[in-house]
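Final report, results section. Input specification for complex C-07:
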Amino acid sequence: MGFHHDEAEEEQVPFRLEGASGADRHIVVTAAKRQWLDEHLARQWRRPPTAAESDQSVADFVREEVLYREALALGLDRDDLVVRRRLVQKMEMLALRDGPGVTESDLMDHYLAHRAEYAVGESASFRHVFFSVAARGAGAHAAAAAALAAVRDGGKDGASGLGDPPPMPAEVGDWTRSMVEARFGAAFAEALFETDLGGWSGPVASAYGYHLVFVTRRAPARVPDFAEVAGRIATNLDAARRAGALDRIYAKVRDSYQIEIDPSLADSPAHASHPHGHAERTRA
Amino acid sequence: MSTPANPLRHPYFGELHVHTAWSLDAFVIAALNGPDEAFRFAKGEPARSSLNNAEETRLSRPLDFAAVTEHAEWLGEYGLIVDPDYDPEDPEARALVDRYRASRVPGEDGRAGNVHDMVEVVISGMVRPDPTRLPIGELKEVLDAGRTIWRRIVEIAASHNDPGRFTTLNGFEWTPTPGGVNFHRVIIFRGDDVPDLPLSNYEATHPEQLWDWLETAAGGPGNAVAITHNANFSNGQMFNPRYSDGREIDEAYARRRALWEPLTEIFQSKGSSETTPAVSPDDQFAGFEIVASQAFQQVSGATGAAQGQMKWGTVRGGLQEGLRQQERLGVNPFPVGFVGGNDGHSGTPGNSEAEGWTGGNAYLDDTADLRLFGVVEGGLPSALLNPAGLTGIWAEENTRDALFDGLRRRETFATSGVRLAPRLFGGWDLGDADLRDLAAAGYRRGVPMGSELPARPGGAAAPTFLAYAAKDALGANLDRIQIVKCWTDRGMLFEKVYDVAASGGRKPGPHGGALPPVGDTVDVSTATYRNDIGAAELSAAWTDPAFDPSLACVYYARILEIPTPRWSTYDAVRHGKPLPTAVPASVQQRAWTSPVWYTPSERDRAGRTAAAGMYAVAELADRGIHPMTDDQIRAVTVGRTVRSVNLITGFEATLHYGADGNRSLMGLSDRPVVTPYEIRDGRRIETTLLGERMSVALFSVDGRTLAARDDEAGYVNYEVYTTG
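Structure output:
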């Protein structure tokens, strides 16, 4: 972010600025630290910082560090909601770092359990020669029918110079039925998925006119191979892993705590009103 | 195998502007879907429009691409509110958080989201000149929560990205609304390389600041693009050639705006921004889904701009102003291509179909009665709104890189919601023969929509445009293709609409003129139409019959469908309701291509010979002729009746300047139109018929009295005759 926020933290502390002592009053800004600060600036602005910016960031760091140590010495971190939540967030990062990464076998397990969710509808690859009703009027059907023999003579490549420029690609690869419907109309899609493979046939009516079609390949609705969807599964699993990391740690240590809850206070009714699922999403 | 990358490009349809329940203003009106549900909806799965709406809806076919664009303003606040562990100690924050959470619980009427005052809480901090955050949490908490939510949105988008079949793009909306005036921009990113938090109006209230951020934090022009929207809600400000602080723009502004904002959303659920019948009185089809003027002021609370200024609140006016500024600055600040969008708050991207629409703004329109007879906040009748527009991008393949490059090239078009695919190529040696293979010819010997024409070859008299459109494969036939031409001459703005192709053997004349209507097959009582008029495809090679190589101009194509029932007619018939009276029962849905621009070379400009007796202010100064003083102006003005003649258009007006400071315009109606004027600082400052303030300098030249308006780029365009 390129803009400064007005972070007016509330100060309610009677100051006795002698909190930090001894070694806590020794601050060393190492070369590595300076480099880290510079990199941080560069990331923010997407260019290397100037010397002046770099010096300023060191000064800012020292100022922050001094005040931070004083604040710690005064115990200001205790019972502070922001600090609490930030530390909890760091636990999550820790959990992610130390927890198990996503392995190839996790991906495969997920694939086997959920592969139906990645299913792709039936699809077809085909070529077609188009005869436009807008250009030819009522003669479009006859023109298409008359051209069938010549197109057949040309084999898979058809014959050049026949037909009109189509409003969609002349060669279509691996389109699902809904993609064909969206571009050609429902009746065409219906006919196309019943056409025999490997030869020219037609005329087939579309929203725009008549087509001679050569279906080169047709695939039934299928579940993609693992390799095809491994990338998407990794993205999904990674998100799930983030969501689960803290839960795992929490589950591990929770039982070692003794927890007492005063039953006299009822839960706020607002707590019952969360939209399903949102809480999980934001806990991240 | 997938369809091979197509060098002649393919039109992909999708969504670049939609909110889900993760935008706080959608959350409080009982929106149900989050980003995950939104992407699923875009891919064809069913969804509901709100917590209250049991009726599911689904797209008749999936989109090719989509972005979920939440408001940056309240990402963190939203995150805290939905986090059950968040329990602020501050009583004010506690109360507000509880009320937001309660907005999700059905009230006495059984409906959730019945909290109009909460919507106002969300919006009110935003319309102030110095926006204030909602008092929900400490700033750091809010920003941290915002980062978490933003990261989740990016992750969800990544999980749905399926190159070749369905592409997701990352984006957000920056939403400054100072004084109720819409300066909103949608930001779209190329890929996953995004800043850790989007920019909100709390950090930046002006576009100039947004551009700073885009240049630094957002990774530069190859990584991000900003899209303006709702010029119609900008109170005439969207294309006002001024800095945010009121200074006249300069070359630096023009360069930066052109770089960062190459696109504008010309159509969306809150109406068309193309133009209005008042701004374009000669455009027979300008009156389409207009939600501006009074409705705007009701919603925004802004004080109204003069009607004349409203030109800057239209895209067509912006194209014209861009040319005028280009002549002054050498750079066009507003070279915008077009996209269309939804801007709904139900998390249903691409929900733009008129038939069977179940609402797009959650609590506000989740019943037929609310859609047809309700009002959205501020008193705007819901019936004036519409389901949504769509964006089309011409691209080699359906991937993030190819689509983003298409946006950057402006090779885009907008539709009013239908999947009608238009093409437009311009060039100097294109002709009828090229229609057979128009894309190959267009790319080889011309330029596609969104581009500037190549330099004019010596012998070329005028540019020719190849225009083509294929109807929506599941929709209505086409009525006509039009080309809208805008140009500027001596600082004045002009436009003309040409019919260039029409169905059913109707032949447009070369210079325009009225084409017979296509007909109307709509049966309002059943909300049906017959697709037996119009054409499935239309095309034309059109040469500008009035091209002047010395003048900059811009062309775009508009394609009209035959009349079909408006969404409100489908809705009323489906639910047995009367038709709302404020809107037409049928409409001609349409598409707009991004424009093609022509910029004259220095040589072409020099070829312009000024007509005898026509001057620029600077030329007069060279001859030692200076503007009249206040006293001289008074002598030829006060108590006089004058005839003012526009030397370019021939338009004449008869005006009487009374001693009481009022100007009476005679002859336009049966009584004079009276507006105030004053004379000071060597200028006569008047209020025009359209309510615009205009400042005029007068000159005495060779015994004639000539006049120059201050907004006409220093040209002296009027002659004034004293008649009494």
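Chain B has a mean pLDDT of 90. Chain B has 17 helices and 35 strands. This concludes the modelling results for the funded period.
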